[in-house]
Amino acid sequence: MMSPILLSVIALCMHDGAAKVDPSLKQHWIFHPAHHDGAMVAEVGGRLKGSLGQGVDVVSGSHGACLVFDGSGIVAIEGGQDDQREHVPLGEMTVSAWVSVHSPQEWGGLVGLIQDNGSAEEGWLLGYREDHFYFGLAGVETDDADGLLTYLSAPEAFVLDRWYHVAGVYDGHRMSLWMDGVCVAESTEQSGDIRYPARGSLVIGGYVDDNEFNPHQGSLQHIRLYDRAVPPSDMGDLVDAYPSMRNQPVPQSPLRILVGPYLQATASKAVTLMWETTRPTSGVIEYGQTSELGSTVESKQASLMHEIIVSGLQPETNYFYRVRSSDDTEAVQSEILTFQTMIRPTTPVGFVVVGDTQNNPAVTTMMSTFAWSHRPHFIMHCGDLVGTGTVKREWVHEFFGSTGDLLGRFPIYPTLGNHERDAQLYYDYFSLPGEEYFYDYRWGNVHIFVLDTNKDVSPASDQYQWFVKAVAESDAPWKVVQHHQPAYTSDSNDYGDTWKGPSSWGDVRIQEHLVPLYEQFGVDVVFNGHIHVYERTWPLRAGQVDEDNGVTYVTTGGGGGHIEDFAPTRTWFTAHKYRGHHFCIVTASDKTFELRAFDQDGKIIDFFRLEKSTTAQD
Q1: Backbone angle region of 277, left / alpha / beta, with phi > 0 → left and psi within -120 to 50 → alpha
Q2: Is the distance from CB of 536 to CB of 554 less than 8 angstroms?
Q3: In what order do the strands lie in the sheet with 132-137?
Q4: 280 with 375, same domain?
Q5: Whether residue 118 sits in one domain with residue 207
Q6: CB 126 within 8 A of CB 95
Q7: Which of 225, 245, 265 is the last residue of a domain?
Q8: Nearest-angstrom CA–CA distance, 169 and 191
Q9: Distance between CA atoms of 236 and 6, rounded to whole angstroms?
Q10: Sheet strands (E) in 190-317
Q11: Count of domains for the chain
């Protein structure tokens, strides 16, 4: 006798009402042209519809039709919570899909309905973590009052860009994870009906709950959801229903510019431009002193990440440009943008300083718009560009997605924060001089030295020894240091809980090893992030205020991260503080260095000026 699964497949080939053959098949998504219109996809039985998010495409080929995700968006199932709950399993379940992963994530999702926020863990999810598939589920009969998810993980890593059949099964007492018809993990930790969250929506192609949004990057096909536990004897039928899938090529995403273009190293006669495409392509930059462009530079090597130097330019000159990428089948190009080559050493400079943009693209977008209105020469970022440096989505869609208009016209000089985790993605997205985690750059009369205070800063470290030599050799009127952690801060709890006891008022490593160098070599201002507030110190030297010879320390950690607070009493070193999102604009000539700090509405929250004679050298 044929199994219900094979009967369903035969009926499906005859009529779209195939789901009626097996009443336990609550949802079946195949993405055939008959079931999508370019903006929406419909479940085979007509029970649900889903809207195609940004970067989600239905692609047809020898493999049939499937969803292709570029990591931008998801398929959000329409209808209210009651409508969706009518078509999900309650006590037993099986969820299965053919899946390929193009880029692994810390937490990737394929299909599910979940809330995993703090101690509250509810729902179910089929997905992957890094390069291992998993199945997560919470049952109602657990001792944890607000729910507890069990995640079954496959013991072996999957191969990127290869089709796998993945399934999760729950019979009310036992969970199991299956790959290509083989059970690879089991657990009896969960029991009872499935514990569903009070709020939440069914999602295809993402791990999504109240505080996480991790879209899939890869492909999905033939998604099935049963309200019964498919027995082991029938699991092979789920795989064999589409016997040719395993050997079919995985489709590529439509060609798009995923990130950029954006400016990197800028010199008096050259500039470096970078951008990322969804497929490996060649790259071309068209540029000129008018919007007619006229000149080109090309890289024929196919790549996802493009990094091209435009040389032979004029100093302190405005240029127009656009980038183009193409392969054998498609081409894509950016809009026409502008850049300026590096200013002459005697030209006054203006630049943006910001930190801790992590995980708040709405605020970062708003402040990028304000920053653009000031037309800076460049952007200084004091670290924690993203919330988790190993998560590509945060780079693509949170950081670059909210700063693209700004960074397409002005170069950015970042430093590593603790949230970057020293991840390879940081080094992939930025082309920085020297050792990259420490380096220097100069615009006009301002010489800036970048240090990584997540790493060793003792005299034995490479960056300490480099800094001593580099700052000693600088003849710039203004010497500025840029790093993430603060030397001095009035923060309430990062360096000791000030509501319960004392604080070191900053990073003791920096106080011990770097502050003496700043004072010895005449550093004027030190910018840092890490603490999500704005704070400016008085000029400090030898552990006290010295308005004539001291170093001013500016904490600017208000680029988007959750706002922190100050200690309950005032510190001896603080001159001005502000609690809220913000960014800074610095302008400097040979004699004057000015900083204006703005809140997220563009209102000034602080101003200070430093002055010196052109002959004064410390």
Answers
A1: beta
A2: yes
A3: 40-42, 49-52, 75-77, 203-204, 105-117, 120-130, 132-137, 150-153
A4: no
A5: yes
A6: yes
A7: 245
A8: 13
A9: 10
A10: 203-204, 206-209, 212-215, 217-226, 257-266, 271-288, 295-310
A11: 3
Q: Which residues, 6+ apart, have CB-to-CB distance to 169 below 8 Å?
A: 93, 94, 135, 175, 176, 177, 178, 229, 230, 235
Handedness of CA 284, 289, 292, 295 (dihedral sign): negative
How far is it, in rounded angstroms, from Cα 313 to Cα 428? 26
The answer to whether residues 266 and 236 belong to one domain is no
Helix (H) or strand (E) holding 88, with range, is none
Residues 277, 213, single domain; the answer is: no
Range of the domain at 175: 55-245
Residues 333 and 347 both lie in one domain: no
> What are the angstrom distances between the C-alpha of 39 and each of 27, 202, 206, 208?
19, 18, 18, 20
Q: Are 124 and 114 in contact (CB under 8 A)?
A: yes
- Mean pLDDT throughout 428-451? 96
Q: Is the dihedral of CA 493, 496, 499, 502 positive or negative?
A: negative
Please, which residues have CB within 8 angstroms of residue 470's CB and are 6 or more apart in sequence?
440, 449
Residue 145: CB atoms within 10 A of its CB come to 8
Mind listing the pLDDT tens digit for each residue in 545-573? Answer: 999 999 999 999 999 999 999 999 999 99
Q: Does residue 614 register a pLDDT over 60?
A: no
**Local structure of 178: helix, strand or coil:** strand
Average pLDDT over all residues of the chain: 92
pLDDT by residue (tens digit) across 118-173?
888 999 999 999 999 999 999 999 888 888 999 999 999 999 999 999 999 999 99
Say which amino acid occupies 231: P
DSSP 394: I
Dihedral of CA atoms 584, 590, 591, 596 in degrees, nearest 10, equals -10
- 616 band by pLDDT with thresholds 50, 70 and 90: very low
